[in-house]
């Protein structure tokens, strides 16, 4: 049972980090683990010690919960996520997100690696997500009881948080693009025809994560913001073959540092 797992997780975390109350949760996407080095640690807990936390099977996702502080702001950092394509479950991140909410996190910052549908937004760029399109047809709230499951998704990506991240990027000398993220199920990359369809729907970047966590966080009444590292041009837009290894390489070598600088400036400003 999800709620039972959340209560068990909260008990484990409170035993390992007594009195620690994070204000902001962070999810690190593929190849973006370098931000963990900026955390002054209080406790590190492997997902295997947290009932209901999925063990990631994708390289670039460590599978640990890191509790600590960034610029004196208490945070809970999920070093790795599980994806719909790993388990066939859209709600695979339900327990982690609800655990963060139960710890007191009022804000969830999400990061991911994505492909660009805009030729001018090249690999290594960073995009601030302004909205999303769920192309999969599934929801992490399938089977959820009660009227709260009818979540209002207008301004799901909080405008005030987006303004603060833009200011942090400017202060850090980071060029921050903005756009709509479209969620495909994966694990295969999209076809050129699917990318043409996504373009006509109004998408600017494509990926295989994040959207379920946004829905879960909004259901838990958390504020949300998301940043994408652009690791490739989407299918049919470039000559390079698409691969997960290339995603890891570009995310770690280029965009990760810009996301790190932007988020450090965001936290240095108090992070709300």
What would you say this structure looks like, in words?
The protein is of the alpha/beta class and 272 residues long. It has one domain (2-268): Rossmann fold, CATH 3.40.50.1580. It has helices spanning 2-16, 84-87, 94-103, 159-172, 192-201, 211-219, 244-268; strands spanning 24-28, 40-46, 64-70, 73-79, 107-116, 126-134, 176-183, 205-207, 223-233. It has a five-stranded mixed beta barrel, surrounded by four helices. Helix 4 packs across helix 7 (244-268).
Structure keywords:
272 residues; alpha/beta; Rossmann fold; 5-stranded mixed β-barrel; 7 helices
Mean pLDDT, to the nearest integer, reads 91
- SSE string: HEEEEHHEEHEHEHEH
CATH fold field value: Rossmann fold
SS-based class: alpha/beta
Low-confidence stretches: none
Q: Strand order across the biggest sheet?
A: 5-8-7-6-9
Can I get a quick summary?
The protein has helices at residues 2-16, 84-87, 94-103, 159-172, 192-201, 211-219, 244-268; strands at residues 24-28, 40-46, 64-70, 73-79, 107-116, 126-134, 176-183, 205-207, 223-233. It is of the alpha/beta class and 272 residues long. Helix 1 crosses helix 3 and helix 4 (159-172) crosses helix 7.
């Amino acid at each position: 049972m999800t709620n039972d797992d959340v209560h068990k997780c909260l008990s484990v975390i409170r035993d390992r980090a007594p009195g620690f109350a994070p204000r902001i949760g962070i999810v690190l996407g593929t190849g973006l683990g370098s931000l963990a080095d900026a955390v002054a640690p209080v406790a590190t807990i492997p997902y295997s010690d947290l009932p209901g936390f999925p063990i990631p099977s994708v390289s670039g996702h460590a599978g640990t919960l890191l509790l600590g502080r960034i610029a004196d702001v208490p945070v809970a950092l999920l070093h790795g996520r599980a994806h719909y394509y790993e388990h066939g479950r859209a709600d695979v991140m339900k327990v982690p997100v609800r655990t963060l909410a139960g710890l007191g996190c009022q804000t969830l910052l999400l990061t991911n690696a994505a492909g660009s549908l805009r030729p001018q937004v090249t690999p290594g760029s960073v995009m601030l997500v302004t909205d999303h399109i769920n192309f999969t047809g599934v929801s992490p709230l399938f089977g959820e009881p009660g009227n709260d499951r009818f979540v209002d998704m207008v301004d799901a990506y909080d405008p005030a948080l987006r303004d603060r991240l833009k200011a942090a990027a400017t202060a850090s000398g980071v060029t921050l693009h903005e756009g709509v993220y479209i969620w495909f199920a994966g694990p295969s990359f999209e076809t050129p025809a699917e990318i043409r369809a996504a373009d006509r729907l109004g998408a600017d970047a494509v990926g295989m994560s994040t959207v379920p966590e946004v829905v879960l966080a909004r259901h838990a009444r958390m504020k949300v913001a998301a940043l994408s590292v652009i690791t490739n041009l989407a299918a049919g837009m470039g000559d390079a073959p698409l691969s997960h290894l290339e995603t890891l390489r570009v995310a770690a070598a280029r965009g990760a540092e810009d996301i790190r600088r932007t988020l450090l400036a965001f936290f240095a400003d108090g992070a709300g």
